Amino acid sequence: MRTQESHPIDVGAVREDFPILERKVGGDIETPGEGPDDTRPLVYLDNAATTQTPKPVVESIVDYYYGYNSNVHRGIHHLSQEASVAYEAAHDRVADFIGANGREEIVFTKNTTESLNLVAYAWGLAELGPGDTVVLTEMEHHASLVTWQQIAKKTGASVEYIRVDDDGYLDMDHAAELIDDSTAMVSVVHVSNTLGTVAPVADLADLAHEQDAYIFVDGAQSVPTRPVDVEEIDADFLAFSGHKMLGPTGIGVLYGKEHILESVQPYLYGGEMIRSVTYEDSTWEDLPWKFEAGTPVIAQGIALHAAIDYLDEIGMDRVQAHEELLAEYAYDELTAFDDIEIYGPPGDDRGGLVAFNLDGVHAHDLSSILNDHGVAIRAGDHCTQPLHDKLGVPASTRASFYIYNETSEIDALVDAVDDARQLFA
Amino acid sequence: MGMGSDMYRQQILDHYKNPRNKGEMSEPDFSHTGENPSCGDTITVNVRLEDDGETIEYVTFTGDGCAISQASASMLSEKLRGLTLSELDAMDTDDVTEMLGVDISPMRIKCAVLARQVAQDGAKIYDGDIDIDETTTED
Ligand SMILES: Cc1ncc(COP(=O)(O)O)c(C=O)c1O
Questions:
Q1: From 2.60.120.10, 3.90.1010.10, 3.10.150.10, 3.90.650.10, which CATH number describes the B10-126 domain?
Q2: What's the mean pLDDT when you consider all of chain A?
Q3: Using CB atoms, which residue from A40, A394, A423 is nearest to B8?
Q4: How much is the ipTM here?
Q5: pTM over the 0.90 mark
Q6: Which of A119, A208, A217, B61 is the Cys-Cys partner for A186 at CB 3.0 to 4.6 Å?
């Protein structure tokens, strides 16, 4: 991909692969897709929620359904073999992308949430008990926070939270204090979807491993936006979602170290995951299939492969550099106004998102006004309600960036925020 | 000002910035509180009735939250004066959007109807028809 001297990504060329970025919005919402009363150009800044899908990824889905749609691992007919090969290759591609040893370590799920639940149920219910602790962070997404909280209630284990300091960083002294010989699991968000904080997950892995605890890294916001290598960070588990990295909805990934996954019993039972069945008992397939019961996410897995190819062609270092550039630009532009409060670390040390509040304007009012300008952002607690309670606000407005965003779109955001400021003055 | 906003016409902003009947009430016939948990909007409605025990004499409210929820409470406090409790009970979502005078996007409807819901639940508790502590627009 061609890049400009000054910019890590040739955004103009990238945008041509995303037809949706051309559409206008603002009219009737009952009928999906652009209609005659949609008049405002879309400024899509809600990428932490979900990213848009480029042509090669959509084409991979079309190719599959038009060309070789079939169930996998069941038929010995030609189509089933083609589909099986492609589906297995998708696991290999994901393994390669995150530095895993092979497909044995890659389980396809529905999303990050299901990956977390898989480990919490399959490993947590079996292994946790009174006296065990699960250590989380105060900036955990509900996908992890609620899941471990509920598993702890079922097992009698307790949950502890590593403090987030006033600048949005994890208090690592507190982490070292909390992670002790009662700790069985440390489950941490890698890049906070609210604060943009990048957690020092390799250091947390060391703390966990010193206590013979596992570390689960929630990579929902990190894997799409920066190079992540499971060996480098020594993660025991890593989860992420295809739809946040150019892929379709309906596919998530659970990475687990092979020897750990071997030791964990299946979470869902049924077809595809068994080796042999009698009326009395059953035995399990090899990894990763033992965790993929029933007809799996075939089209989605194949499309995730295409999404990873697309990202790798750009280069994940460039994706990260681009994200950081936009985050810093947005941070600087927004903090130029003293009625705006941004949560989390400074502009030059964060992932590609900014969550903020405009003084005197509720986040939902602000997002409605931004929507009137065609600016798509998210308002609410971003599935981090306890963190918002700690910040002392019911909600915030979050702009989040991806490979196709430009600084001019951040200018549009800032102008729209100014319109809200004038309206409410 | 830029292209302005469809939902934030002058009337809404006026009621948000200069709320009518905002404040406590001494000796209300009933008071009730509700919230939108996801938005953090909260509203308490205080109602005094005429001697007939049926006609609304005076309404005040207190609360916190987005412009739509607070303006809606302010307008409702004016509209309810002189209505009966059964007329309050009959108010539906269309009546609320008509009162507001703007189209409310589907995602914001629960902000718009919070005050009405709180007033209706308060009246039902007063009449002994229901028994709840707090109204919430999500359950
Ligand atoms: C940090 C983080 N964890 C988990 C999730 C859950 O992802 P999903 O909804 O795809 O399961 C998200 C996104 O919503 C997230 O940002």
A1: 3.90.1010.10
A2: 96
A3: A423
A4: 0.85
A5: yes
A6: A208
